[in-house]
Structures are given as structure tokens and as C-alpha cells.
Amino acid sequence: MTDTVPRPTLEAVAARAGVSRATVSRVVNGSDGVRERLAERVRRAVEELGYVPNQAARSLVTKRHDAVAVIVAEPETRVFADPFFARQLRGISKELTAHDNQLVLLLTEDRDDHARVGRYLAGGHVDGALVFSLHIDDPLPELIQRAGLPTVYGGRPDGNGGRRGVGYVDSDNRGGARDAVRHLLGLGRSRVAHITGALDQTAAVDRLDGFRDVMADADPRLVVEGDFTPAGGERAMRQLLDRCPDLDAVFAGNDLMAAGALRVLREHGRRVPDDVAVVGFDDMLPIAEQTEPPLTTVRQDIEEMGRLMARLLLRDLDGTTASDEDAGAAPPAVIFPTTLVRRASA
After folding, report:
1. Rounded to 5, what percent of the chain is helix, strand, coil?
2. Which end of the chain is less crowded, N or C, counting CB atoms within 10 A of the terminal residue's CB?
3. What whole-number distance in Å separates Cα of residue 4 and Cα of residue 256?
């Protein structure tokens, strides 16, 4: 048996600082109305004693848990293999950490996972939710709405999530796709193919729409659906070569699929960019720089998009904690511009 050291109490901090317990409580909970000289004494006493606020008691006062659910509508095998998710999570984590909030990561793969996440959100463990990689007709938006949580989406929501007033952060997927295809046409290419992402996601649909904006009369055989993975890019590229062996350019819906397409083109003896020019989407470093040849791609600021998602949610929470009736007011929709980054593949 070992003796445990008593946990410092609010009263101990008050005694050390020479102030009332109420003053310590106001400082610890970030409330106004305490003179800076007294607040500094309290902060010094907190540090000297190693006082840690009781989160349960603090939540009763502030109605905040200082925790945010980050929900990725993908299985863990995809989330931990795709650097896109690492970048977005890094941006979210940086912003939440800067505001002393805990990130609670929730992944969904099947209906049982959706039920589990729904129960967790309804249990009042978090203040709000950040959701990305939604698929059309995903039940998550309805579950979140039922839980009454303020929410910001990563990517333009659709289906059940496309209701009026939903806040989200996205990039200009359609405009970026147009820039990619126009660049290929500007190189003198005429048989431009497109490997789409999974078409149950709005990013893939928007990029396909951008392709069609420029290539309205394109041969339908030049469009093949992928799934945002390197293997999906390989499968789609093989289909395209079988269908249209005379194609001279490919716009892939993300860099991972572009990397897979480059491998297949190399296997078939097609020189890039001499025979076939290739453009991706994301500017996912180091992937885009390490492909052979280095990849021309459309850049979106994935990490900053994650930070802004968290920033908008925290701002919303700061404005809604005073009244439960106001909870869930949607932040605005923000669309990030994209930029074409030219390298050797096109």
C-alpha cells in the first residue's frame, strides 16, 4: 500500500492566494469581474499547488465539457492509411488544443457504428461535432441533429445533411477541376479522361461537374469511377486504357488515384507527360513530389480547412452556451480557393 497525495482543492488555492473561494472559481472558469492583480495571484497559486479543476463540477457551472467529437465517416483502415485525414485532423487538433479543448475521435464503418456514435452524442459527453468525409444518405446528420449538437461539416453536405442552415468548410472543387482540365487542353491534349472519386461524396460529384463544365462533349467512356485510393486509381486507369487506348491526358480526382494511374501507365509503356499528361487534386505532400514524374495537381489547404472548421465551431459554442434554446445555430459556409501547382506530369 502506498499513501496517496491529497488532491489540491479550490479552498487550498483560495488560502494560498489570499482570496475567496468564489474569486478562485471565477478565475478558473474564465469568468469576468476579477481584477487582474487578484487573477494573477490565483493563477500563481494554481500553478504552485498543481491544482486541476474538477471537470464534472466545472461542467455544471459552465455547461461546457471542453470536448468536441470529430466524426470521420470512414472505416479506420481508410482513415489511418490516407494522409488527407491526417492533415485535416492535425488542423482540427491544433485549433482545439489552442483553446484547451479535447478531441474525441469517432469513426463509422457500418450501421452498428452509427448507432454507437448516436448514443454517445446523445449522452451529453461533448459540446459539439466536426464531421467530414460524409457519404450521400449517411444517417449521421440526422443523428447529430437529434442530439441537438452544434456542428460544422468538412465538405459540402448533401442528402440528409444538405438541409438549410448547415455550416461547412469546403474547397472550390468544381473550380479546381475546371482549372485542371483547362490546363490539359492548353497543352494541346484532346482525349482527356477523368478518374472520379466515390460518387456518393459531394467532393467527387463537384469535381466531375467541373470536368464536364469544360468537356461537355467528352466521350462518356473517358469517365471512370474510382474511390479516392491508389488501388482505385489503378483499376480505373486500366479500364480507361482498355476503353480508350488513344487517350492523351488524365485528370484524377485526388493525388492517391493519380499515383495509382501513373503506375499503370508506366506498366503499359506510356510516357508521362509525352504520351499521357496527368493531373491530380489535393497537392498531398510528399506524395505529389515523389511520384514519377512529380505530379501536377490542384492544391487545397487541407490543414487550414480543419483549423477553420474547429474555429467556427468554437465560435458558435461561445455564442450559444448562455442559452440551451440557442444551441445548434449554424456557422456560415466557407469555400476555400484552389490553386493549380505545375510539376512534371503535365
Report:
1. 45, 15, 35
2. N
3. 53
Spatial distance between the Cα atoms of 226 and 177, rounded to a whole number of angstroms = 16
* Grid cell digits, residue 218: 467528352
Per-residue model confidence (pLDDT) at position 162:
44
**Assigned C-alpha cell, 38:** 487578484
In angstroms, the CA 110 to CA 119 distance is: 15
Cell of 58: 466545472
In this structure, are strands 296-299 and 128-132 parallel, antiparallel, or unpaired? Answer: unpaired
Q: What is the pLDDT of residues 118-157, one digit of tens each?
A: 888 888 889 999 999 988 888 888 888 888 889 999 998 8
Query: Taking the CB of residue 24, how many other CB atoms lie within 10 A of it?
Result: 29
Mean pLDDT (the chain, rounded): 87
pLDDT (0 to 100) of residue 5: 56
What the block records as the C-alpha cell of 208 is 466531375
